[in-house]
Amino acid sequence: MVVVEAGRRDAGRALAVVAGALALTLTGTAATHAGPERPDPRAAPAYWTGTWEAAASGTAAPLPGASVRNVVHTSAGGTAVRVRVSNRLGTLPLVLGAATVARQEPNAPRSANALRGTMRTLTFGGREKVTVPAGEDVVSDAVTLRVPAAANLLVSLHTPGDSGPATYHRDALRTGFVAMNGNRTADPGGGAYRATTGSWYYVTGVDVRRPQAERGAGAVVALGDSLTDGSGSTPNTDRRWPDRLAERLRALPAARRAGVLNAGVAGNRLLREGRGPSALARFDADVLSRTGVRTLIVLEGINDIKGTPEQTDPAALGAAYRELVRRAHARGIRVVGATLTPFGGHGSHTEARERVRRSVNRLIRTGGLFDAVADFDAVVRDPLRPERMRPAYDPGDHLHFNDAGMRALADSIDLDDLDLGR
Description:
InterPro entries: GDSL_Rv0518-like, SGNH_hydro, SGNH_hydro_sf. Residues 222-408 form the SGNH hydrolase-type esterase domain. GO terms for molecular function: hydrolase activity. It comes from Streptomyces apricus. Keywords: Hydrolase. It contains nine helices and 22 strands. The model is unreliable at 1-42 (pLDDT under 50). The chain has two domains: 5-206, Jelly Rolls, CATH 2.60.120; 216-417, SGNH hydrolase (Rossmann fold, 3-Layer(aba) Sandwich). It is of the alpha+beta class. Helix 3 crosses helix 9 (403-411), helix 4 (279-288) packs parallel to helix 6 and helix 6 runs parallel beside helix 7. It is 19% helix and 26% strand. The chain has a six-stranded antiparallel β-sheet with strand order 8-7-12-4-14-15, with no helix packed on it. Strands 2, 5, 10, 11 and 17 form a five-stranded antiparallel β-sheet that branches. It starts with a strand and ends in an 11-residue tail after the last helix. It is globular.
């Protein structure tokens, strides 16, 4: 189906999300198709961490009376889940008539069918229906569901009426499904979901409950623009660089297998509103409010340099990086800064902008801004033409990265620079 962007909210509203989201985060029991969750007094202590994220990037036309089945890919597994629903950029209260979560039928990334026996009803404070105020998020009650790492979940949401502009993540690189008429959230089969979408509607996060043995790992957030969001990579394959980083982490001992949360937004800027609120404005909602975050990787700034109006002062970007680091450190989060990758050959590239990019990269490498540096520029640039990326990593637009380029970025990250516990 065609997704129509209906407008953007003032970036400053994103700063109000955290208090509302945290206040509404609920960890109690919840009704499911398998019966209510009851804690086992013999069970070992467990903890929660984020396994998936999609940052709100704007708004789309609402789908009154429809059910949307979002497909999301986990980075870490667990024994229970809870789901974050967002009306962060909406202008009216969002009324959800019903919501469910299930595992997708295996080996069928373009299927709306749920794996048999995994459909669960989501509740919010014990109620199946919830109203989310404009500018806020809510988090569902916990439901028991065994979720493997690197699995696809179906998060289905029904909007019975017109709740105004729908908060969404435009570029999912993942096929989702829409049933245009009625509440079909509990359908195990996908027959009613005859329309498709390339965006995620309303759902912006999934947490999993993990065993005590994995407590030290926490989560890593990747904050960025389209290079992190995955533009240029193959849809429906989960080959963005944060996906590949999650794959690397899953090979570690259990206590170090962090979840990886992708807070990339195509078109995003560090200092100004672009597509979605600026990185500074959305930082609390997309990083600090997430569950179990121990490390942040920042790859932001290229759209400030090449955008309109363009940022010509490297010191302004440096000051913004310092502010992000200050706010992260206040929460005990370690920050890794990534150098800005080359875009020579792209229509927006100029010699003046190239000089700014190189100056910013010198600041990232030598300015002591971050706890560690991931030198993405050094990994992907063409040795003969350092203003350009290597041809093997170029999907053709000279800005984004293909699957091989995404893998190269992720593989260059020193895992010892991440706070993964021991």
